[in-house]
Each structure stands twice: as C-alpha cells, then as structure tokens.
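Translate sequence into structure tokens.
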Amino acid sequence: MRYAAYALLPAELVLGLCLVAGIRIPGPVLAGAEAAVVLLLAAEAVGYLRLRRRGLSARAALGRLVPEPVLRLVGHELRLLASLGRWVARRPHGVGPGVRAFPHARDQAALMYGFAFVCVVETVGMSYLLAPWPVVHAVFLVLDVYTVLFVLGLHAASATRPHLLTAEALRVRQAAHVDVRIPLERIAAVRRESLFSHGKAEGELNLAVGSETSVTVELTEPVPAPRLLGAPRPVRVVRLHADDARALVRAVGEAREAYGSRGALTPGRTAPCPVPDPPS
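Result follows.
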C-alpha cells in the first residue's frame, strides 16, 4: 500500500497541474485516477482496523501504514489548527493544577500580525489578478487563505503552548513543532542570558523568539529533542525565550531545591568552579 501511495500521489499532482494549465484530460483517465485513490484509502482503512485488532495502539497502527515524516507533518498541521481554537477560547495547552506556565510569544506578536496582514493583502491582489481564470483563481485562493491560517496558527501555537514547569521537569516548547521535556535532575545550570545570534552547534537547541533567547539551560546528560520530521537530536544545552525570563530562572531554581537534587543551583548561577591549587 505504501508503494501504491508513492505512485498515486505524484500522478494526482501531475493531473492537478494539467487541469490548472487548462490541458484537457480524458474522462476515463480522471475517473480511473479517482477510483485508484478511493481504493487506496479503503485498503488503508482496512489495514488500520486489522492492526488495531492485533492490539496495536492508534499511533503505532498509523506508523505502520503512513511514513513517519508524513505522519509528523500531518500532526503538526492539526496542532496548528487546534491552537487556533484554543487561542480563541483562551485555553492554553498543558496548564493544570501543579503546573506553572511561562508565556513566550509576546515579542513576536507584532511580526506575526504584520506577516498575516501582508498575506491578506497578497490574497486580495492575487484574487483580483486571476479572476479571468476561474480554475487558477480557485486554486490560489485556497492556498492563500490556508497561508493566512498557517501564519495565525503559528502565533496561536506559541501563545497557547507556553513553557511549563512541574515538580519533576521543565517542558520547553516552541509553536507546535518543539516540545522537549527536561528532568530537573539533569539541569546543571540555569541562567538569564540574552543572545541575539545563534550559530548551529552539535548538541545545542536554540528556541529563539524574535531572534532572541533570554534563558540558557545546561544539562548534565543529553535529552532527546527530535526534529520536525523525526530525526534524532540529543541536546545538552537549551536556549529559550520567556516573556519573564527572571521569573522562569527563579522558578526552576526553586523547583530544583524542592526536588532535592544534590548540587542544586541557585537561580541565575552556574555550577561552582573548582578550587584552584595553592601558589607554589
């Protein structure tokens, strides 16, 4: 079924481009292509039900039928759309009893709203220019409207998915594609540090907002921070941004002390330096 999907999806894309370009496609060809897609979806549904009957979870069953990158991309899009609903309803994700939330979307709001406004203007302009070609107009209208929703969804995901601190872990997040859990016992140092340039380095995760990070967390052991498409990425240094960086650093220090870890660090300080040797 996976090989059939790899063959049908490019074929559907080619047919769509031909229709947009005004190329006349024979009726039997279109009917055959649509029938093949319906049969593939039906086969996927039957395979999913069989895997569920064998005891696999919904996530595991989907993983057997759908490639991991595709599954992650679809999940990302669904989280963006769900974030729009949470944003309107003012219901942040993951916040509950015993959980402290630290927002981080304030400094990007103006940029995202400006970007969304530009997309709206572009949508209106393209709609006017493409009015003589109804098919092309409809395709670009759908793409433009989805682009506006995508931009708003990115900001909504950042606004409704704040960093979270519990009694056991710090959960750092960015939009709908980053969600990393850092156990408190693995935090070696946490400090407030404003940085505006972040070079790519192995073992580092930079979650900049408006090109800025304001908190640096150093770890004793790496934690997994997989990329968007699922590629593994262990990290030992995490840089993030919070609207109130001092409050986040202070809260992490207090949580570590309460957790009872040996060598807990006070807020905003790194691990003590070794005692130097006496002068000769």
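Note: Residues 261-280 have pLDDT under 50 and may be disordered.
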